[in-house]
Specification:
Elements: E1 2-3, H1 7-17, E2 28-35, E3 42-49, E4 52-58, E5 66-71, H2 72-80, H3 85-90, E6 94-98, H4 100-105, H5 107-110, H6 113-124, E7 126-127
Parallel strand pairs: 1-7, 2-5
Antiparallel strand pairs: 2-3, 3-4, 5-6
């Protein structure tokens, strides 16, 4: 089991995401901020190129095209499937700054059955 928000957990996500089919145009550099985690705020970033996750690393990416910010509790609910990320955004529970168009271009990927299946696998292998 990988501890949530650890580099081991990010590596697990990247490993499982290698099963994604190529999706031309699904390319972005994303920064995540999770506030109020047990060890304090956590920042990590993800680089996706045509649907393939190239990087998933703790830290800050100065080249990120947008930033997603959630509380620790809401991020756990999203990962477990108890809170839809779109609903969290619409309710103001997930903040987005930066290039909203770039985020929207990833919707076909993040709404796909492949993505949801991998998210379920990650959740099952995560220690909270």
């Amino acid at each position: 089991m990988a501890k949530y928000l650890s580099q081991e957990w990010l590596d697990l996500q990247r490993e499982l995401a290698q099963d994604f089919p190529e999706r031309p145009g699904a390319t972005a550099r994303m920064q995540y901020v999770v506030t109020g985690a047990p060890e304090g705020d956590v920042r990590y970033f993800t680089v996706i190129d045509n649907g393939k996750m190239l990087e998933n690393t703790l830290g800050t990416d100065d080249q990120a095209e947008f930033t997603l910010t959630t509380t620790y509790d809401d991020s756990v609910k999203i990962l477990k499937g108890d809170l839809d990320a779109n609903a969290a955004f619409m309710q103001g529970r997930m903040k987005v700054t930066g290039n909203m168009g770039k985020l929207m271009s990833l919707m076909p990927l993040t709404q796909s059955p492949d993505y949801k299946a991998i998210q379920t696998k990650v959740a099952e292998q995560t220690e909270y």
